[in-house]
Each structure stands twice: as structure tokens, then as C-alpha cells.
Write a structure and sequence with these properties.
The protein is an alpha+beta fold. The protein is 32% helix and 26% strand. The chain contains three helices and three strands; from the N terminus they run H-E-H-H-E-E.
Length: 68
């Protein structure tokens, strides 16, 4: 199981067109603090029908969109 699989399942199950999630929301979903490992694991998103769009370390959010 991937470290970020709870987040990937969350976006797939809720089936929105896009998500702009704060790091706090990611922590609530995954039960751990958002970290740089996300950049490694983001490549798993297409398997769940989504893709990584953007990340803001300054504003502390991640943007995920549904694959077209």
C-alpha cells in the first residue's frame, strides 16, 4: 500500500472534477503531515483517474484534477 493511497482513494471516491486541498486537509485524510514524499508518490494519481496540477508550499495547498 502506498503512503498516499488514503488520499488517492478519497479523491476517487468523492469523484469531483478537481480538488484544492490544504496541507491540513491532506493530514486529516492521511493521518500524517504533508511532506516532500508527495512529489514521489504523485505519479500514482493517474491510476485513480486524477493528475497532479500544482503545489504551493507558500500557501500550503495541493491542486489535483480529474484526468481528461
Amino acid at each position: 500500500m502506498s503512503k498516499y493511497e488514503p488520499l488517492w482513494r478519497y479523491v476517487k471516491e468523492n469523484n469531483k472534477e478537481e480538488y484544492k486541498l490544504s496541507f491540513e486537509e491532506v493530514k486529516r485524510i492521511t493521518c500524517f503531515d504533508f511532506d516532500h514524499a508527495f512529489l514521489t508518490y504523485k505519479k500514482e494519481l493517474p491510476d485513480y483517474g486524477y493528475e497532479f496540477k500544482k503545489l504551493s508550499l507558500k500557501e500550503k495547498w495541493v491542486w489535483i484534477i480529474k484526468k481528461k
